[in-house]
Design brief:
The protein is α+β, with helices and mostly antiparallel strands. It contains 10 helices and 10 strands. The protein has 2 domains: 98 residues, 2-Layer Sandwich (Phosphorylase Kinase, domain 1); 213 residues, Aminoglycoside phosphotransferase (APH), C-terminal lobe (Aminoglycoside 3'-phosphotransferase, Chain: A, domain 2, Alpha-Beta Complex), CATH 3.90.1200. Helix content is 41%, strand content 14%. The radius of gyration is 20 Å and the shape is globular.
Length: 348
């Protein structure tokens, strides 16, 4: 597992008493019942507004909101989640039910079913991993054969660009490379590692558009903090803002780094579970391309400055890079990643 524990700091989420009255009034009007208590729902690495609501009729709801003090990225993600849940209603088979949305003043609420028997993802067990892939198998069965929108032919371009950024940016030197090297205990060792590995990794990044294996609806943001399990063992996948029709090799390699970093399983074991669940083999070349691209996303961000409103972000990025490169050592025959720093994860 990644040797550093998550920082004990929490994200700067708004508390229920700070929610504007007009936003509360609009939400209660939509619910048809008053809110007696709002408790912050912790989870994830952003400062978004997320609450568990106790209602006057004795029921509960989970809500999250777009609001002026959320990061622009966070607000955009909520809008994208609304779009995904409407476009792909079968997501409800493996996720809490999306009940609707309502706007009050500068706040836009998303209302979801509250899962009262939820079990956290960690620690990982074989049964939990099998449940995750069973849920992904359900999504594949529903989305197999769906085509990407004509306006969105390359759904991964924003995060996994082919010809710029990520590994290419680190090859160009400058501030991006300096930030990358500063994330390691021995920057000189990291520089040697980078020089040795960049030719192979850059070639695989450039090859991303050659992915030709199975496609379907990909969650594309699957980590333990975006998962819950019911008492019956079934998995629920949360936060569908990145959902898109695309390569399932990218879906697999997007999930694997955090799972590896958290001691869940090796990359080859995760691949076998996924292929069994979807009933289709993912070509070796696709997995190599996808893993190199996902690793490049984290490599290009591993040394970025600390963000006070997201105090655990640097930690999770380092965990993800470490996990990705653990699999890449064997899959891509690369040398071990040098040791990442852990002494600067909470420093401003």
């Amino acid at each position: 597992m990644f040797e550093a524990s998550a920082p004990a700091l929490r994200e700067a989420k708004p508390a229920w008493p700070s929610v504007p009255s007009e936003a509360v009034t609009a939400l209660e009007g939509w619910l048809g019942v008053s809110v007696t208590r709002g408790e912050i729902a912790w989870g994830g690495y952003g400062p978004g507004a997320t609450f568990i609501l106790d209602l006057a009729d004795g029921s509960r709801r989970f809500v999250k909101a777009r609001h002026p003090e959320q990061t622009p990225e966070g607000n955009a993600m909520l809008a994208e989640e609304i779009a995904a849940r409407r476009q792909y209603p079968f997501i409800a088979k493996v996720a809490p039910a999306f009940l609707g949305e309502v706007t009050g003043g500068d706040w836009q609420w998303l209302v979801f079913e509250y899962i009262d028997d939820a079990v956290a993802a960690l620690p990982w067990t074989e049964a939990k991993l099998q449940a995750v892939f069973a849920a992904l198998g359900t999504i594949f069965a529903e989305s197999r054969g769906l085509q990407a929108l004509e306006s969105d032919r390359d759904p991964f371009e924003k995060t996994l660009p082919v010809s710029s950024g990520n590994w290419h940016a680190l090859a160009e030197g400058g501030e991006d490379r300096l930030e990358f090297l500063a994330a390691f205990v021995e920057p000189e060792a990291a520089d040697r590692w980078l020089k040795q590995c960049l030719p192979r990794l850059r070639a695989l990044q450039t090859a991303r558009r050659q992915l030709g294996g199975p496609t379907g609806l990909a969650h594309f943001d699957l980590r333990s903090d975006n998962l819950l399990f019911r008492r019956d063992g079934s998995a629920l996948l949360l936060d569908w803002s990145e959902a898109c029709i695309g390569s399932l090799a990218v879906e697999l390699c997007g999930f694997a780094p955090s799972c590896i970093g958290e001691g869940g399983a090796r990359g080859d074991q995760l691949r076998a579970l996924y292929e069994r669940a979807i009933g289709v083999e993912i070509p070796d070349r696709d997995v190599e391309i996808a893993l190199a691209n996902v690793a490049g996303f984290f490599a290009a961000r591993v040394g970025k400055p600390w963000r006070p409103n997201m105090p655990r972000l640097r930690w999770v990025v380092r965990q993800q890079l470490w996990g990705a490169m653990q699999w890449a050592e064997t899959l891509l025959d690369l040398p071990p990643l040098p040791r990442l720093r852990t002494d600067d994860l909470t420093a401003a």
